[in-house]
Amino acid sequence: MTTPPTIHVKPITGEATHTINCPCCGNPRLIVHDDHIEDAMKATGKEHFIEDGDTVQGIWSRLSKDQQKREMYAALLEVGTCPQCKVRHFIIEMSLVDSFARDGTTEYDDYFQCLLGNVELRHGGHAVCTLDQPIDGVPGSWLMFEKFTDDNKPIQHHWFGPFRLDHPEDVEGSNGVAYHGGDAEPWIFGRDLVVKAWDALWALIVEHTPEAMRAKPVERMTIETMLGLIGDGIERESDEMILGLLDKAFRDLQEADDKREERMLTQARGAAITVLGPPMTGSQVTNAGVIDAARDTDSTSISTGQNEISPDFGDLFDSL
Fold it and tell me: Using CA atoms, how far apart are residues 282 and 308, in angstroms rounded to an integer?
């Protein structure tokens, strides 16, 4: 296994500052201090460094099976304007936390709100990141913000850019910045940047996470096993409502696996979790009566209705 390039972190401390220049006119745009960021241009109008953004798509399907063990991240393309030259620019923001939580679990939802900045976190500092060896398509240096949850777990936000945006219509529509299928160069650039920097970024967040708090990987169920379990449930189930949900989950998973499309995979995962229910233990009763749990070769129990499943079912998915 190839060792990823190492990211070196130089904290911005004391009186030291880091300046971010406009990629168009070259004038100072932001001055980063240890505990705050100063607008170097003192913008008073509508031109802000970040005005709007949307999720970068297409990352998941380009990751290896091993890389797909982690999905606790948020990748955004964010657009702003220089108050002096009036030219638009964009940054790629990659936020992550050391966790193996899967979409649809409480842990995932809680951490995802932290990644999006919707939860107040403790300030941990600003830093400049550099690579010990170059990665094609990844800037040689960028800005990182580190924050901490209430239980002292680090959350890292990486800002790559700003980059000149010559054609704003590539990323903007009538409702602002929006993903239009991802064919435009800025979206492809952001997608490829995150994929190329993936291993190095995850190595850094793990390094900065206290050893006692580091996430442990979980054995996950493959789509094939999921389809088998749901198929067994369809054969045994008699409740029409549950049958309908099982059938939809089965078809969604098949289609998602064939097309390997990121949004479809997320929707299919949600459908399967809806059918199989939240994490619970012990036999329970539905309108159709007690439902026997199906078991895979590892004796992982999952009911065919909205009942018994193994703890943290969302963490059992493999290729979803």
Answer: 6
Q: Flag whether the pTM goes above 0.90.
A: no
- Give the three-class secondary structure for 77: strand
Beta-bridge partners for 28? 21
Q: Are residues 20 and 151 in the same domain?
A: yes
Last residue of a domain, one of 164, 184, 212: 212
Residue 81 near residue 47 (C-beta atoms within 8 A): yes
pLDDT per residue as tens digits for the range 99-157: 998 877 889 899 999 999 999 999 999 999 999 999 999 999 999 999 999 889 999 99
Q: Are 144 and 20 in contact (CB under 8 A)?
A: no
Separation CA 264–CA 289 (nearest Å): 32
For residues 23 and 87, what is the distance between their CA atoms, to the nearest angstrom?
9
Which sign does the torsion angle of CA 274, 66, 91, 188 carry? negative
Q: Are residues 189 and 297 in the same domain?
A: no
